[in-house]
Amino acid sequence: MQNRNNLSTLSLAILGLISQRPMSGYDLRKVFTTTPMGHFSSSPGAIYPALKRLEADNLVAGEIEGKNTLRPRRVYTLTKMGKERLVQRLSEPVTSEDIIWRMDDLILRFPFIGNILGLEKTLHFLKVLLQQIEAYIPSLQEHLDNMKDESSLYGAFAMQHGIETYQAHARWARRVIDQLQDKL
Questions:
Q1: Pick the CATH number of 9-90 from 1.10.10.10, 3.40.640.10, 1.10.1740.10, 2.60.120.200
Q2: Which residues contact 32 (CB under 8 A, 6 or more apart)?
Q3: CA distance linking residue 84 with residue 95, whole number of Å
């Protein structure tokens, strides 16, 4: 759900994609259905209402192209306010709550940060992301260590999965930081 001050993950994805080039609802749906971005939504029942909300909030502007053709289409561009809101959202700090509850949103932000905010801010984002992940893993490990005495074997396996997932995120962040620092 989107409120006026905070973009939903779907709205963030839409704004980020439209920031790259003007797009129609059909263009957006095609991206969502033919790429891994489908994880965020491929449903016209979500995409078109999100576009209407973004337009009502003056974050995108739609214009009809091909008015005199059999298939006119509404193409959306970012407004000045939309660009500012996108930059604001991409510039938000990475928090421990983000690491726990919004990892998909963080990974979605990453390419848009790189394309819109540049290399230095992307590196900063990744370094803070890595710090937050590394700070969280020991608490998961402590929880796992406590589970061995009181919880089921299957709960411990699930906790191990969570730890290994965060370790994989940390390895990825370290590798990308190293590769991007070479570009400085």
A1: 1.10.10.10
A2: 13, 38, 40, 41, 42, 47
A3: 21
pLDDT at 146: 86
Residue with tokens 């965020």: 40
pTM above the 0.70 mark? yes
Sequence ranges of the domains in the chain: 9-90, 110-181
Backbone φ/ψ region at 52: left (φ over 0), alpha (ψ -120 to 50), beta: alpha
Distances (CA, A) of 71 to 6, 48, 67, 68, 112: 34, 17, 8, 8, 31
**With bands split at pLDDT 50, 70 and 90, how would you rate the model's confidence at 1?**
very low
How far, CA to CA in Å, does 137 sit from each of 142, 151, 152, 172, 176? 9, 19, 21, 15, 19
pLDDT tens for 14-49 read: 999 999 999 999 999 999 999 888 877 767 788 999
